[in-house]
């Protein structure tokens, strides 16, 4: 069997699949909807992955009865705990796509996408927020990333909800005045936010927290003090995640990469990245903060190539096959 890697980056909002040979050549790439098992359930997740994997095989010209790859590297949102990783690995192995399978959290793919060796810290802030770290000796540190029950703060959904909360309180007098109020009223095309709340309650309009998250950053860019407090709190959280991970792995004083990714971080210019770089430098002066510039599926494929012992040239060829992310557009 020709050595191939089936790479899966399964996010909350989209799933990307790439089929790559051992030389780093991209044989096929397909995209589909988000399929986090936490959001859609394991059966639906597997249904989406199966469809995309088979589509990639057809695109690469493989016969229907031919194994898709030697190795499947699946890095998935929702694979937050060891039991979840094991359940997903077992389920994917039963699909028969490849001889071996590794399942991990998608933040590990982000880390590999942003580094040459998968060593360092990665913080992702997209629909949710998460952080993983890998030391040179192989030790890892991670957070459960299960939402408020595991102490999380941040993510597009959380921040968008915060924007609505602050604007409602500004209108009814419980909170400080903020430009979020007229911005949200205009966003919904309503006469007041009380009217919007009623419509949301009766499900007459859609609550899209990610759109409100983008709106909050726009208002913050205009200098609104209330919106800026949310941005500052996100900066604090990203620095906390990275610095705690570095401390737990005894890397605070070492030269180390800190990779940032996810639409909330990559789509806001320097609003979060620049202050994160400045504040993290106070804790880890030798850390280099960088924003990932290739899709996380590249990281999943690289982890797969690492597992198969591919030559260094394969990484260069694979990276060259992908256009750099348009960071201004949110990655």
UniProtKB/TrEMBL annotation:
The chain positions of domain ATPase BadF/BadG/BcrA/BcrD type read: 8-304
Pfam families in UniProt: BcrAD_BadFG
The record, for InterPro entries, names: ATPase_BadF (IPR002731), ATPase_NBD (IPR043129), Euk-type_GlcNAc_Kinase (IPR052519)
PANTHER family membership: N-ACETYL-D-GLUCOSAMINE KINASE
Q: What is this protein called?
A: Putative inase
């Amino acid at each position: 069997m020709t050595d191939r890697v089936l790479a899966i980056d399964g996010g909350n909002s989209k799933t990307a699949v790439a089929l790559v040979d051992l030389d780093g050549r991209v044989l096929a790439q397909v995209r589909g909807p988000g399929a986090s098992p936490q959001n859609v359930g394991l059966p639906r997740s597997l249904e989406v992955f199966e469809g995309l994997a088979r589509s990639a095989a057809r695109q690469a010209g493989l016969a229907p009865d031919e194994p898709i790859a030697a190795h499947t590297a699946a890095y998935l949102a929702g694979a937050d705990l060891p039991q979840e990783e094991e359940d997903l690995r077992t389920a994917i192995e039963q699909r028969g796509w490849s001889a071996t399978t590794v399942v991990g959290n998608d933040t590990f793919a982000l880390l590999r996408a942003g580094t040459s060796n998968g060593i360092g810290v990665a913080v992702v802030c997209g629909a949710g927020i998460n952080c993983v770290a890998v030391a040179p000796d192989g030790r890892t540190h991670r957070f459960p990333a299960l939402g408020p029950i595991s102490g999380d703060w941040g993510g597009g959904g959380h921040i968008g909800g915060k924007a609505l909360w602050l604007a409602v309180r500004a209108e009814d007098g419980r909170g400080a005045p903020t430009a979020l109020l007229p911005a949200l009223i205009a966003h919904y095309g309503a006469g007041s936010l009380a009217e919007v709340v009623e419509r949301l309650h009766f499900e007459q309009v859609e609550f899209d927290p990610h759109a409100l998250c983008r709106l909050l950053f726009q208002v913050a860019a205009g200098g609104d003090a209330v919106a800026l407090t949310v941005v500052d709190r996100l900066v604090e959280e990203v620095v906390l995640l990275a610095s705690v991970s570095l401390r737990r792995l005894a890397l605070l004083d070492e030269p180390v990469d800190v990779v940032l990714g996810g639409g909330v971080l990559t789509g806001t210019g320097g609003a979060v990245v620049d202050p994160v770089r400045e504040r993290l430098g106070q804790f880890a002066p030798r850390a280099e903060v960088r924003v990932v510039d290739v899709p996380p599926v590249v990281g999943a494929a690289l982890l797969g190539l690492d597992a198969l012992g591919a030559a260094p040239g394969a990484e260069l060829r694979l990276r060259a096959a992908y256009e750099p992310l348009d960071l201004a557009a949110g990655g």
